[in-house]
Amino acid sequence: MDGAPQDGVPATQQTCYRHPGREANVRCTRCERPVCPECMVSASVGFQCPECVSAGSAGGREPRTRYGGRVVSGTAAVTKSLIAVNLVVYLLAHFLSDKFVIPLQLVGGGYYEGHKVGVAEGPDQWYRLVTAIFTHQSLPHLALNMLSLWWIGPPVEAALGRIRFLALYVLAGLGGSALSFVFMGPGDASLGASGAIFGLLGAIGVLVKRVGGDMRPIATILVLNLVFTFAWAGIDWRAHIGGLVFGAAIAFGMTHGPRERRTQTQVVTCALAVAAIVAMVCIGVADFPAF
């Protein structure tokens, strides 16, 4: 009852439990101990004492994004890291030229320094599916892809969280590489982050649709990019289409699973994507023409 004595001290003359002698006219909403203005911590309802705040932080759940990712301080750390990796690889490619690039680019099958190389040669060459995603030789190619990543990456990363965003980016890039390899012939080669970028385009479309946003700007950007893909000679449309399909499919699985089994659904989605990529590569190896 308001005004009732506590430990022999009238409510109007309470002292802070942490600072004896300081008047305290507010009680912690959790433990009901009196606290002075210095010790008052604003809560969703009323004020709490420092000890209750610490206990609640230790035992409470950390904040999560709508789709289960951790909410962390800082902005777009993974996006910036991916851009940095691409820049470093480009600089190495620029100064070291073909002896650095050829072992990294996506090659279906061919000869290099008298040896057979390429994804068709077996699992020891499948690393090219990954390294090609981070390799550029042309500055305009690098600039276009990195600007696109800078614009599209942060909102997708903020929505999914860092780990889910990175998984989507890499798997979309791998999906683009795998589809590109399926249609490759001897001597064909491909490189660049475009497949992963198209994966982010597909993902942001799914995210906007999921929250009931306006799809017209996304659709316009996507159509323009597809027109550019098929109209410009030398662009690997297979990587673009593969990345787009995988990015959209993975984003759908990450955002539409039941909340109580959200993480499990996302893991299964990524596992199915990996299985599909491996299956495509195996089909490509089996059907690759002799050289």
TrEMBL record:
One of its GO terms (molecular function) is serine-type endopeptidase activity. GO terms for biological process: proteolysis. InterPro entries: Peptidase_S54_rhomboid_dom, Rhomboid-like_sf, Rhomboid_protease_S54, Znf_B-box. Residues 124-254 form the Peptidase S54 rhomboid domain. It is a multi-pass membrane protein. It is found in: Membrane. Keywords: Hydrolase, Membrane, Protease, Transmembrane, Transmembrane helix. GO terms for cellular component: membrane. The chain crosses the membrane at residues 71-93, 126-153, 165-183, 189-208, 215-233, 239-255, 267-286. The keyword Transmembrane applies. Residues 13-42 form the B box-type domain. Belongs to the peptidase S54 family. PANTHER family: PRESENILIN-ASSOCIATED RHOMBOID-LIKE PROTEIN, MITOCHONDRIAL, RHOMBOID PROTEASE. This is Rhomboid family intramembrane serine protease. It comes from Wenjunlia tyrosinilytica. The lineage of its organism: Bacteria, Bacillati, Actinomycetota, Actinomycetes, Kitasatosporales.
